[in-house]
Model the fold of this input.
Amino acid sequence: MGDLAPDLWSHPQLIATVAAEDWGAVLRAYRKITGLSQTQLGERVGLVQPDVSAIERGQRKVTSTEVRQRIVTGLGIPAGLLQGHTEAPSAPVAGLVLPGPGPDDDLLTRVTSVVESEHRVDTPTLDWLDRLLAEHRRAEDEIGSRLLVGVMRQQLRTVVDLYAGARGPLADRVVRLASEHAQFLAWMSQDQGQTAAALAWYDRSHEWALEAGDANMAATTLSMKAHMAWSGGRGGRAVRLAEAARWSAPGASLGVQGMAAQMAARGHALNGDGDSAARLLDEAQGLISTAADHPEDEPVWMYFYGETWFTLQRGMAALHLKDWRAAVDHLTIGLAALPDEYRRDRTWYRACLAHAYAGASEAAPALAVALEAVPDASAVGRPHAWNELHSTAALLLRRGAPEGHQLVAALREFD
Done:
């Protein structure tokens, strides 16, 4: 909430309404203090204007934890104001005490100290765990993150239990494997809108990557933090983190360097700097194209970077820059080439394509693409693709297109 006064959440009216979890009153008070319209507020929290109005008037109750989280995240409500929040000042990583898929106290103890019992560690076991993690990454593309979080937490416990019995190079490999698991858990937390948990896991992954001397993962965790900043609308921070990913890990592979350059491009596009975005996308594409000549030098998590992916990123940059026609063209081409097994990504880019059509005042194709995305957005695309569809509906309504009401009805059917 960089455009608001830093003491916004010290306002007694806001404090009282949040403490009571009277979300209609929260929205009313927030709009009164900030001067936002219902449409502008809806864009921040991923709700269309009619739903904001219904909540404010008490005609719609906020009973869904997802909608509650949208409001909390979109308005930047401090965790300390929420019911049931308990602070743990001694927690070594911010957010570890929050509910959700982040590391809990028991797991924190296990991963930050040597366990007493030793488990036999050998190369075939670690090879198997590497393959299993790679398979889970691929599965998450298709089924989403919710079903895998518990599995991956247990798998990380298994990896950590191996540390006490590992020596020499095997110990380094166990730490590297733990870092990769933590990075994947961070990504899944981020995918579910659990920002604090994601940051906690990224911090843990980065620490382990440094311990293991893994430049690729150390750079990747910073790039993914840049992705989080971009997702939260903070273009400047996305650029700084992406640049840090490049200079802080000079031993990273060409592909990982390309990832960082692409993340910086996203931040520049979000800030409206089209020239810098285009230059960095070209640089990133060149790095990753060169890296493709030696795939053996790249980490396994780089499997999805390629020409199709870059076409989609150019569409996203155009979307930020409100170059609607270029966004439609790039996203359409990219989606046509994106394999069906990337279900979550297809859902996200369809939602973005619908937004681009709406921005181009092409309401009919915007609705058609959005309706195609709604079922998967509900199943595997919450909160990001789901919120993007709400933003598309809000844009259509703001422009007076009747298709906006049709999209609102479809979203309510699955909400």
